[in-house]
Amino acid sequence: MEITTVCVLGGSGFIGRHVCHALAAAGYRIRVATHDRERAKEQLILLPTVDVAAANIHDPAQLATFVRGADAVINLVGVLHDGRGNRSFQAAHVELARKVVAACRERGIGRLLHMSALASARDAPSRYLRTKGEAEAIVRESGLAWTLYRPSVVFGPGDSFLNLFATVLRFSPVLALACPGARFQPVFVEDVAAAFVKGLADLGSFGRSYDLCGPRVYTLRELVEYVGMVTGRRRPVVGLNDALSYCQALAMELLPVKLMTRDNYYSMKVDNVCSCNFPFGIAPVALEAVASSYLGQRTPRARYQAFRERGHRSEPVNGE
Known about the structure:
By secondary structure, this protein is an alpha/beta fold. It has helices spanning about 15-25, 35-45, 60-65, 90-105, 125-140, 160-170, 190-200, 220-230, 240-255, 260-265, 285-295, 300-315; strands spanning about 5-10, 30-35, 50-55, 70-75, 110-115, 145-150, 155, 175, 185, 185-190, 210, 220, 235-240.
């Protein structure tokens, strides 16, 4: 199966940008569907083989038009919090997966790579994991040459996990932490992107599912304490018991910006770890080797240094 043109759904997101860069570096032509074409162009403008198109991928007709002529489709779309309309778990995970399969069949596209999540299952404790599990079943039963990717929490510059804790620690003298013993095995975003590219044309990956994890397991408390150390904002961390963790999730669910919900609480009931070897011969990068480089920029010293450098650049030269 020769693959030259790849349609990427969710290509302007955090993981999607890295996948597109890796695909472009490997010589593929890429189409990215987005509802905000100008914003996506700014993020992907340096990639000469990327074409950014405005399309509503939740509309079957527009989706079928977008993927026409492609050799493969990569679906990276997902939401972390249950919202309304296309931002709901049901629409973004289950219904979209069904529409993508239908569009591939209609246009004669045999290759589909699908992003799921570690611990996804139809009987999982959270709606997030259950809908991800339903989407997996749709892909498995599609009759296409599919490959599933199931990463643990993904980290890297611009992530919404470690950076979230960095922001919370900046404004919290003491951190009350729900589910402090929840276990994660964070995986570097560029390793995830490399797995997609290497698996794209690998016949051995057809009909297979890959769990993607980093080299080390951490508790949530350990991750928060690490972020505090790297950013220079060490804070006392008060681990909440199960009942208080649920109450905190319920209270935070009512906020305009959802930092945590009861569904997140239920997801953390399941260890987000795996024991398998990383696929395609990729040696996963340790969190400590990367996270300090971007979290360290958030320290007071780093911000002060950046302020000084900006000030020097704006000073007049030769008295002008």
